[in-house]
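Lab notebook: predicted structure, single chain.

Context: the supervisor wants predicted structures on file for every construct in the current expression panel, including those that have not yet been purified. This is the next one on the list. No modifications to the sequence; it matches the entry in the shared construct table.
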Amino acid sequence: MQTTTESPGDTSERETSSTPPGKYSRRQQILEALARELEKSPGKRITTAELARSVGVSEAALYRHFASKAKMFDALIEFIEDSIFGIINRILEEESSAAARCEKILGLLLGFTERNPGISRILMGDALVGENERLRIRINQFFDRFEMQLKQVLREGELHGELEKGSPVQAVANMLLAVVEGRMNGFVRSGFKYLPMDQWRAQWKLVRRCTFTGAD
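Prediction complete. Output recorded below exactly as produced.
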């Protein structure tokens, strides 16, 4: 599984000096196996029995590392959050214009989705059907936070004249997120056939022209 930063086991319940190295590596194996199984079986709910077979351990061994399957999903969601928002912080440091920031932030999420098909099912809620409702709430919170970040960028852009005065910043941020979510959903719905980054450059030009002043 490819990622933009770390691998899944690196971001949840981080290893301390008292954590045996074998335990840490097994946790990471379990998370990577879960992501692979989600990718191999689009639309299918993954059982702990299937996951245990994939890792090559017993179900009991899985539960020695994670108290429940929900905890495994929690760890993958934490990986998503750390990966995306960590890089967003770097984008904000490196880019000054609202248009460039939005382009890179949206492209980041699309690229992350394309590189991590199994995890994209978690983002779209497909993999969480029948799982603990708390997980769906946490994914909703991820997108709320992502939209809030876009709104902040747009507000700063308005102050610097990149958006027309009085622009409906909340509506624009929601629109940008909806465009990206639509491409992500198409990726999952198609069984990973329709790649999120396909035609994105041309589509972004259209979105930018409608959103920012002075855009080509």
